């Protein structure tokens, strides 16, 4: 189990350098909606997910594969990309659509955070949907843990920070140890402040307003469900799979 001062929180993709993660474990967080969607896809039987940083990266990989073997998935600024099979709503990733499929996944911030974490010892994909599995994974090792909030184009995101705070709150049994990093103090305090009204608070976040006329009804509520899925997606050698499987 890591010591209390060995858990830190970064608040956007741009807030860290690749080298900052070398030798550490990373939990990548994009509650609205990339990591929630990945968790749903993995739970519903997707074989593997290839995260890419941009459309060019997605096309490059797609060109090397048989057209029947993959689905192009993701969004730009919340909107499904023209020509893609699926957008970034977790509700699209049902078993009929994703079972045994390889998903090439490209989002505005979330997949960039995942790609940038490639020097970490372990890379876990977390959101409220698999909170307990992430907590269990955090307790298994004693290396430093960094909770990486994807944010929005370099800026802070309330929903990601609340989930980082929730992890810290439950990891430490509701009591923040004396010796913790500044980022952990901020996330923990924010969660303490809003923990009784999580969904309502997240529904009023900047990103929820950004998405309100763009995404299927119910996405925000879906992403706020705690422990809906019992999976631990993680990235190894550039591929996200269920680490249980
Ligand atoms: C992202 O990667 O920035 C998000 O998942 C955007 C979204 O809500 O589609």
- Poorly predicted sequence stretches spanning 5 or more consecutive residues: none
CATH architecture term: Alpha-Beta Complex
Task: Determine Rg (CA atoms, Å).
Answer: 17 Å
Number of helices: 10
The CATH superfamily turns out to be ComB-like
Give the bound compounds: D-malate
Secondary-structure element pattern, one letter each: EEHEHEEHEHEHEHHHHHEE
Explain how this protein is built.
With about 240 residues, this protein is an alpha/beta fold. It has one domain: putative 2-phosphosulfolactate phosphatase, CATH 3.90.1560. It is about 35% helix and about 20% strand. It is built from ten helices and ten strands. It has helices at about 35-45, 55-65, 95-100, 110-115, 130-140, 160-170, 180-195, 200-205, 205-210, 220-225; strands at about 5-10, 25-30, 50, 70-75, 80, 100-105, 120-125, 145-150, 235, 240. A four-stranded parallel beta sheet has the order 1-8-2-7, with helices on both faces. It has a four-stranded mixed beta sheet with strand order 3-6-4-5, sandwiched between helices. The longest helix is centred in the C-terminal third of the chain and has 14 residues, at about 160-170. The radius of gyration is 17 Å and the shape is globular. About 50% of the residues are buried. The mean pLDDT is about 95. It binds D-malate (MLT). The site of D-malate (MLT) has 13 residues, from loops.
